[in-house]
Amino acid sequence: MKELDSTFQALLDRFLNYLMLDKGxxxxxxxxxxxxxxxxxxxxxxxxxxxxxxxxTSHIRELIDLLVRTGMASSSVARNITSLxxxxxxxxxxxLTDTNPARSIDHPxxxxxxxxxxxIREIEDLxxxxxxxxxxxxxxxxxxxxxxATGARVSELVSLTQSSFEEHRFVRIIGKGEKERFVxxxxxxxxxxxxxxxxxxxxxxxxxxxxxxLFLNNRGGFISRVSVWxxxxxxxxxxxxxxxxxxxxxxxxxxxxxxxxxxxxxxxxEMLGHAxxxxxxxxxxxxxxxxxxxxxxFHPREMR
Length: 304
Known about the structure:
By secondary structure, the protein is mainly alpha-helical. The protein has helices at 6-22, 27-46, 57-69, 74-93, 120-128, 135-150, 154-158, 187-204, 225-238, 247-260, 265-272, 275-278, 281-284, 288-298, and strands at 170-174, 180-184. It has two domains: 6-93, DNA polymerase, domain 1, CATH 1.10.150; 120-298, Orthogonal Bundle (hpI Integrase, Chain A). Helix content is 57%, strand content 3%.
């Protein structure tokens, strides 16, 4: 990048000091914003813009279009827009200019990269591909049944304890931010968990190593997320599933199958434990009986 003229450089330095000293942002974040803004100010100089008052919204939009055309990742474009908005908001807040040309600049809608979704048939093939003739196969089947029955994140699954399971087949899941939610557990998954506890866990459990943790490895310790990921990959290969698959694929399939079956979106969000509904009152007071009805009415392995 070419050097900025003294006026723009002074404004940039002042803003970056504000981010670091007043806002307490990390050095890496400040550096990223600095690079974005230096590019922006350099672009303005190339357009013969030398004062804040001469900057118009059209200049910002033209730069954003240029970044998109050059192939910049959407996440990086979004960060550039954040940088520009913060910069101009700071300038007006400090009384350095009366206009904010970035005020009407919105973030582009991000295209989320969602994991592959397995069909109901593929889920059945996956579960049936587990070799339950082996003791660990019974554990593996219980793990996959639990993932699909609850939509739990893999980090939540490996943290489940035997006491996580309440009466009436509800699972107590501790999610992100230590937030607690209760998800109904279908009979299929409940039966496999009971079988695992009865036939396998008692053999694997080692005093002082296992505690109350539900799913154990072959040494009696806590099963890891990596082990669950590997189990899923190996089972998918045996089932002949060619899609890229991860534990989150099962979580996404859980939600997709319920919604495709007609389940209420709010109930599904509640069961997934999405952060955006923990602060939304209408979503946090769903009745447990209603959640049970949703599972029994719309979950593929409950509709027998």
